[in-house]
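Two proteins were folded this term; both appear here.
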Amino acid sequence: MHRFFAPDIATTLTLPEEESRHCVRVLRLVEGDEVEVIDGAGMLYHCRVAMAHSKHCAVEILSQEECPPHWGGKITLAVAPTKNLDRIEWMTEKCTEMGIDRITPLLCRHSERKVLKTERLHKILVAAMKQSLKAQLPQLDELTPIEDFLEQIADAQRFIAYCDESLPRSERRSLAQVYNPSSDAVVMIGPEGDFDPIEVEAALKAGFVPVALGESRLRTETAGLVAVSTMHAIKEHDKKI
């Protein structure tokens, strides 16, 4: 069944213009056809098209159900956007498909990208949410200076992945070893030029634990994806025990 995103569907009973156009002009749905509508806040609505208008398609809600995230504790990924925007778009798409609660683009001292427009990223998150059959849209923050982010963190496990010649890999525990799947977690990933030592020191003072993401040196976007996939793997393993 076709799925659409309408954050205010419960009150407006109408799909947004872009979703209406896709429903009526692209998919050729007509009055009486049944569709699914998600609000991005965890609710799934089973609906019937009441008026097939290409700008404001009206629906009738037949039933509704709550669809909470299947991964339990909240996952936040704070990552410095790459110079190549395609790479960070790919990462956010895949993280959304797996399941994530919040994505915070970080502005760091060594950041290659100092400006980030989030409109396109938001559309990518919406598409990934629908494609992966989720009802929860990840929170997408604006580009945030790392100093501000460190002051905003709520109670959660805190991990930072970075390259440091002074800290041998043998002395750094892997994320899989220290992550507790029953509670919220925040993982920070630096830019292509890595975190500045001053930023690392500030993160450690804020309670962040240095972690390794494997034996290989990873690109920023790959590191973000590995971190999220590792947490999901641990959660799935924990469910089966």
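Next, the second protein.
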Amino acid sequence: MSRGTDSVRTGAQEPERGEVAEAERVPADFDAFFTTHRPALLARAVMLCGNRQDAEDAVQDAFLAALENWDRISGYEQPNAWVGLVMRRKLWRVLRLRLKVKRAALDVALPRQALPDETAQARRVLTAMSGLPPRQRMVLVMFSLYALTHQEIADDLGITASAARGNLRKGRANLRRLLGLDPTTDPLGEVPLLGTGGPAPGDRLAAALNATESWLRSAFEEDEQAARQAGADLAGRRGDGTGRTGPCA
């Protein structure tokens, strides 16, 4: 995974009245990048924090950081991985300021092609995840959906690898309990202590998280009005100089 984490620039020259400065134009390739990757990043942000407004703010800030450095970011092998890293770090700073995640309504429209059982499961998983402490939730999602190693999770969150392992075990156990899964009759696979990141094949808990992420992504892909508004807001923020923050700010 590409981990370009250089600080983004913080200044921009104000154009003369009536002019459209070249720097304020959204590059065509960035526009396609934003449209393609926003639904998936927003879905993962919701999985990480459980609050749509916090998720949208973090994703928007991350895309803004990429836009302001697009000449560099566009050359990365996986620019969406850089945006995802910025998004996760911003969410983690938000969550550390709270004793627990805000349990606000997600306000997500149902995907048109989703089956009733898929929607019921996604809602059940999201409701259960809202009962997890923020650190357990972040670690669980980063392990299960990003397939990061314990050390990579620790580096992202500024904790130790042993703390990442401990929070992963507790998060899995708590989510299993909140979902009403019996570890005896519903084996979920072992969490590896060392080695590569991500859950073992056949891990039913990770499969439930992946299915929920896919449900969310479909919902955001179909919300074209919100996507257009987000694109317009992004261009506006870049033009008026607001919200200019870097990945480590």
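Residues 28-104+117-240 form a domain with the Butyryl-CoA Dehydrogenase, subunit A; domain 3 fold (CATH 1.20.140.160). The chain has ten helices and no strands. These notes refer to the second protein only.
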